[in-house]
């Protein structure tokens, strides 16, 4: 078992660290959403985490519903994972040569996701998504790609168009530094709009290499692609010879063992995407991501085919040890049933608390991923696309976020982000979270 460390003493304040950080790091952070710009206030500098909890530099404890933005599905410092990482580190940090663990991790992903026959391991979701697009273009000999408004697929140039989360937070529909020529082949359509994608295929179907989607979009909080929408995209891709790319960086091994594609296969018999992109959970908190497809499509990659991809740290031995140990735990029978039930308990607790306070609210979850919105009217359903998400109550969310943070509950610091529950969150953690929410919402309603 993990040694129980003493709670950290307050050594510096979050504010002092933030001021110091801003001198040496742009905005004081290494990924924009961490700066709390969307919600205001001072970011918490995290000193340590264990199980479902994180402690900041001031020694304040938080129940963590970010989980490093998804990877920490077992909670922090799981003993078996920690042990695997330490053992791997003793054997060597990086070799730049193939290792048995990479093969084991590839086999484990393939075993659980039937659409995949081969995978390539990389170091970030951005890299995996970027290469998946290159592979789709290389395999089809076409240039155009379709993505959807509010979906984020990493920060590769061609994909930085109307992406959600951090970009939504900063109000940039796209990024400076991306020449228009680079995104000229990226078509951005409305999420869940069947008619629009039908028209697009009718007009340009022969030029479309792939359609890329976040099946449950976690970068505009939590918005499911409807079953008819996914089914129709599958048909259109088949009809026009385009590839269907599921970006499961967030949903992969998070919403179900078979990932989001297995959730859609429940309603669309035989459903499979052509290419899948993974990250987050498969690395268990270490820099690791992957993309996979049929053997036929993957043969296009170097060294077999002409689509180039490489990485100094790809398949890193410590990261693969972390990912493998994580997958070993989450493939145990009953894991997702328990995680899904706990996540549902959180969402229904929050929903009840909002109802009791008379605050219009909707929430949803799948497996260990959840989202919620402060809507404009009671009875308003879950948002189906980015524009509807943007029209929900941002100021109310921001007040709720800070109220919860003050009560030791760490939610994502922007309403455009999904939340995550880990297997280490106990019933008592959920109850404490719901009690805090009830308190905050009572004040909000007053
Ligand atoms: N795709 C999705 C759906 C994501 O949520 C993210 C990151 O949040 C990425 C891709 C990019 O992954 P990374 O941050 O590891 O580059």
UniProtKB/TrEMBL annotation:
It catalyses: (S)-4-amino-5-oxopentanoate = 5-aminolevulinate. Its EC number is 5.4.3.8. The keyword Transferase does not apply. GO terms for molecular function: glutamate-1-semialdehyde 2,1-aminomutase activity. Keywords: Cytoplasm, Isomerase, Porphyrin biosynthesis, Pyridoxal phosphate. Pfam families: Aminotran_3 (PF00202). It comes from the Bacteria. Its cofactor is pyridoxal 5'-phosphate. Its main location: cytoplasm. It is found in: Cytoplasm. The modification N6-(pyridoxal phosphate)lysine is found at residue 280. The keyword Isomerase applies. Pathway: Porphyrin-containing compound metabolism; protoporphyrin-IX biosynthesis; 5-aminolevulinate from L-glutamyl-tRNA(Glu): step 2/2. Belongs to the class-III pyridoxal-phosphate-dependent aminotransferase family. HemL subfamily. Homodimer. This is Glutamate-1-semialdehyde 2,1-aminomutase. The lineage of its organism: Bacteria, Pseudomonadati, Pseudomonadota, Betaproteobacteria, Burkholderiales.
């Amino acid at each position: 078992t993990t040694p129980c460390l003493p709670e950290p003493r307050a050594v510096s304040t979050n504010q002092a660290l933030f001021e110091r950080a801003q001198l040496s790091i742009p905005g004081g952070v290494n990924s924009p959403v961490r700066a709390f710009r969307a919600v205001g206030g001072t970011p918490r500098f995290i000193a340590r985490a264990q199980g479902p909890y994180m402690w900041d530099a001031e020694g304040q404890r938080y129940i963590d519903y970010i989980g490093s933005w998804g990877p920490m599905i077992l909670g922090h410092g799981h003993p078996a994972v920690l042990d695997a990482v330490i053992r791997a580190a003793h054997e060597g940090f990086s070799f730049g040569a193939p290792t048995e663990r990479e093969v084991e991790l590839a086999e484990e992903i393939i075993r659980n996701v039937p659409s995949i026959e081969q995978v390539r391991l990389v170091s970030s979701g951005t890299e995996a998504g970027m290469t998946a697009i290159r592979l789709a273009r290389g395999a089809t000999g076409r240039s155009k790609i379709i993505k959807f408004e509010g979906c984020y697929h990493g920060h590769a140039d061609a994909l930085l168009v109307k992406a959600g989360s951090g970009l939504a937070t900063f109000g940039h529909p796209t990024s400076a530094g991306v020449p228009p020529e680079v995104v000229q082949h990226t078509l951005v359509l409305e999420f869940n709009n069947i008619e629009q994608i039908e028209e697009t295929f009718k007009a340009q179907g022969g030029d479309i290499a792939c359609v890329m989607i976040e099946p449950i979009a976690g970068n505009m909080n939590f918005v499911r692609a409807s079953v008819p929408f996914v089914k129709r995209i599958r048909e259109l891709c088949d009809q026009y010879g385009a590839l269907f790319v599921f970006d499961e960086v967030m949903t992969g091994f998070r919403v179900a063992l078979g990932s989001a594609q297995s959730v859609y296969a429940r309603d669309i018999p035989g459903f499979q995407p052509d290419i899948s992109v993974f990250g987050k959970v498969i690395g268990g908190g270490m820099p690791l991501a992957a993309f996979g497809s049929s053997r036929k499509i993957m043969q296009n990659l170097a060294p077999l085919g002409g689509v180039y991809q490489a990485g100094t740290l790809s398949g890193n031995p410590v990261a693969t040890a972390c990912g493998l140990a994580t997958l070993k735990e989450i493939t145990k029978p009953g894991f997702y049933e328990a995680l899904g039930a706990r996540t549902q308990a959180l969402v229904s607790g929050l929903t009840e608390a909002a109802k009791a306070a008379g605050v219009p609210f909707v929430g949803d979850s799948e497996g260990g991923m959840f989202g919620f919105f402060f809507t404009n009217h009671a009875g308003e359903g879950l948002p189906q696309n980015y524009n509807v998400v943007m029209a929900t109550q941002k100021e109310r969310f921001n007040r709720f976020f800070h109220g919860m943070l003050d009560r030791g509950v760490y939610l994502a610091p922007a309403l455009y982000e999904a939340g995550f529950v880990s297997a280490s969150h106990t019933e008592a953690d959920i109850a404490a979270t719901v009690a805090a929410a009830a308190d905050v919402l009572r004040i909000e309603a007053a």
